[in-house]
Amino acid sequence: MNAVISLDDEKTKALLTEIMVNLIKNKREVLHEIMLEALEEVALANAITEGRNDDFISEDEIFYILNGDESAGKI
Question: Residue ranges of the alpha helices (H) in the chain?
Answer without folding.
Answer: 9-26, 28-53, 59-66
